[in-house]
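Possible race condition, two jobs.
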Amino acid sequence: MKILKTKHIAAVMLAAGAIGATLPAAAQEQFVPLLAYRTGSFAPLGIPWADGKMDYLKLVNARGGVNGVKIVYDECETGYATDRGVECYERLKNRPPTGASAFDPQSTGITFAVSDKAPNDKVPIMTVGYGLSQSVDGSVFPWNFLLLGTYWTAADIMIQDIAKKLGGMDKLKGKKIALVYHDSPYGKEPIPLLQERAKKDGFQLLLYPVTAPGVEQKSTWLQIRQARPDYVLLWSAGIMTPTAIREAQASGYPRDKMYGIWWAGSESDVKDLGQVAKGYNVITLANSASKGRVHDDLKKMVYDKGEGSDKTGNGVGTIAHTRGMMISMLTVEAIRTAQEKFGKGKPVTPEQVRWGLENLNLTPERLKEIGFDEIMRPIKTSCNNHMGDDWARIAQWDGSKFDVKSDWYRSDKSIIDPMVKEYAAKYAKDKNITPVKCGG
């Protein structure tokens, strides 16, 4: 099936009379906006990510849509620039036939910029594995959905894995752990959690900001060579990641002592480095370093028919591409959940999709049915909890591929939950927000 082009979508809107009008049975369609960055310094990550998001929507349509409702989409290039991202949001938020089901901004900066707009526009903002970490609290952030994990949960799990290698949490005391981070809202997000962990566990936290786009890091790694931290956490994306690994090699810092956030942990980051990156650890979002039946279905129902988004086919099955599919899957499942309440087999409004996101319940059976059972664990959201759960694993580059090296981890809720509550309350006070009353 070919996805509708803009002119045809506009014609559907005119025929329907208004976005909220009931569409004819022959034109049951749901609009999903796709923000992307296929250009700029983050493009090596953004391209397979964008292809994965688009490919899963194609697969859903090949499977018959969402209870018969076909997905239409429009991709908008942001170049990871906040102003361009806001322009895309404004252009697509009311796009027919339904308005934007949910936005995945693919940028912490863009997320911050549109989060203040979303409550008035009544459009959900879905940030899978990124964004403002305290937005897990749905009572303060009813339109934000930070699904599957946050930068706080990721940093916490990295510290847990380091402690396990050292022989226990008590062995962190007296150690030095450095954070090399993109000097932007994205890179700064894990700092509060790491400061809290350092206070609790007795390690010294060293902070090294890197100016965007991250191609000049020599002075940073000279400082690291002098400070000799026991481990380095890397909060980077795009070109900053291979640059950091090369500089680590040049300065003699062992790659097996480095941990990259999930956006610094895909094949495009290390494939050209080969053995130079051997030993490099990354945290995976869920278990996105492995494949599932969804990949087989995608090949059979989309790529074998010449309809795949990645014209080379090289990105399919990679970590970034799989994460893109996960994001679109969560969007589609929110639409499906909304249909169960507001009308099965009918398009739903963005406000109704918000309800679907807040009432997700992806059971093991459902994950198996759609082919994600080997990639994700069950997820259930609520008014209080807009993340669901934060299961993650650690993978390591062996010189040619990533191998999963750990069992499942979850963040330490005794640390994370009080921080979420504290920072969400402060946000509500600063923004003069009256929290929603959640049941239970």
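Job #2 (started ~2 s after job #1):
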Amino acid sequence: MNIHNKDVDVESDSLEEFGGGAKERSSHLERQYDPSFKATNEYIETLPDLQNGPASLIKGVNKQIQHVGVSNFKLPIKYKTRDDSELLIETSVTGSVSLDANKKGINMSRIMRSFYKHADSQFNFDVIEAALDDYKSDLDSIDARILMKFSFPMKKKSLRSNLEGFQYYNIALELVDNDSARSKIIHVDYVYSSTCPCSLELSEHARSERSQLATPHSQRSVARISALIDPTKSIWVEDIIELCRKAVPTETQVMVKREDEQAFAELNAANPIFVEDAARLFCKKLESHSAITDFRIVVNHQESLHSHDAVSVLTSGPTFAQTGLEPNLFQSLYHTG
């Protein structure tokens, strides 16, 4: 489709829409950027601000919007680790507030500016709360939310060769302020290998009954743990990762020599699990920690036998209870190299 018409004067047509004289006035407009121009306070006061315009400018219905804001603005953030060291990690931040029915919109840059006031701090939930308080006040909003996503490194030893490498975990820290009630949530993705118990038994049957070599199928699997934290207690990201390792010890490996690969095969054979088993094993460990109240476990076993995945969801408490699921929830658990 050709959208270019040499016979149409685009500039002329556009200017005609503004009424008589517009074409003539355009010839007096500067077409060069002036780097020396300074915006004084008086000049800034004259700038239009449509987002803070009257309710008459609202398009559509005058209804409250639960969340409006910015997503995926990035900056380096300092985090304290459990061993009292500090990590500087690139972090993706989503910040939003509620918008009253009769307000046109918000100045979204205020969320970023409020967050940057705390960017040099060593982050924890207290600092996140301070950032949320700032932009909630700046935007005169009732509810607000911050979600910070990052890849968290932890050293992991090999099974037998005593080598060591960094394992990275997708982490999200979420603070939700709803009608002045605050919820602190930690999301952790844990990647492991799952060996099918049925396939393992069938393989052993072929060996014992027919002297037939057979291998059980196993696959990369992901569990997303979302845990609501008791406001009177504390827990480290490392603590949740260790709970996952104790629940399902077949975590994928970083450094591997031949003896480690053999050990991993033995470890998988000692811990065969269906997707239902995995959800319940994670649940048992999460229930054992006093700092964790409500939680949700989403598990995806990315099958090597089938052309589809095996999935399960287990929730505890009202925070994560829901009838429907996000359309791409399970697909979001894929971790590629």
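The two ends are 40 Å apart (CA to CA).
Logs attached separately.
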